[in-house]
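Contributing new records

If you add data, match the layout below exactly. Sequence lines come first and carry their own label; structure lines follow with theirs. Keep one chain per record. Anything else will be rejected by the validation script.
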Amino acid sequence: MKNIINLFVIMICCFIPSISEGAPILDVNQHTFSKGKEAIFSIGNKDSFSEPVDIYIAFKVPGDDALYFWPSGSTNPEPCLTDWLPQSVPLTPFLSYTFTGNEPEGEYRLYSAFLRAGSISPDDIIGNVAEISFDYKKGPVLNVIPYNGQSFSNISPVFSISFISPVDLESIKWNSSIVIESLVSGKQATTYSENGALWVRLYIPDTDGSGEMWIMHKVSKNEEALVTLETDGGGSTLTLPIHPVQIEGQTFTLHHGGHYRFTINFLDGARLLDGTSLAGITLGPIEFRIE
């Protein structure tokens, strides 16, 4: 049994993809969960074999190196199905779980593998170990795009931030600050509010000996700033289309081949419609590229 555990650990470190030849197929209904959300796990198979197998399914939870084998939750490897003759089977739910708020926060992983029936030898694993992952977050932020290292093909990408419930758009508009910085040119654009007005500030580094510049511009009512704050139909995802900025002859725009850094800070007063405060939350810096 120890050999099986070691093999699963080796496969974990190698980040085996979720669908592999000769492996089960795993799926989960979404990839980020919060308190009260239900996770539904499914398993299927696309390959037929001429010999019976035992099926193993194991979970790994944040902050714990142990593998917990389904259905008992034991750390000792045990199959969930024995002597099965593999055939093509569509994805079928086998487990559902509703998060209570007491679970460890972070990334969870689920693994499955076929072993020749009756064997516990790593040499008898058939194909690869299938793997999927999902996140559980206790805080109000569920997901952010861009993720660190993401690339876009469009020079006017749309960023997004998903929350656990609908956002109070006006409170975020007046109580947040967004910074986008070029890691190539050193230029930086910042949006913020002050004295009841929205502002854009450009930082232009000294590239010719004339000195660095800070340029502030008050955004008029019908003018596009660096970022437009909008929400999706359900109101729980904040979308942020990125726009070029031109102030006093100086421009900040995203370019193909560019490398950038994005940060958003939520200040006192930023909240969700249910009253959940976003104050003090900073997302980033997140690096992204324009291809």
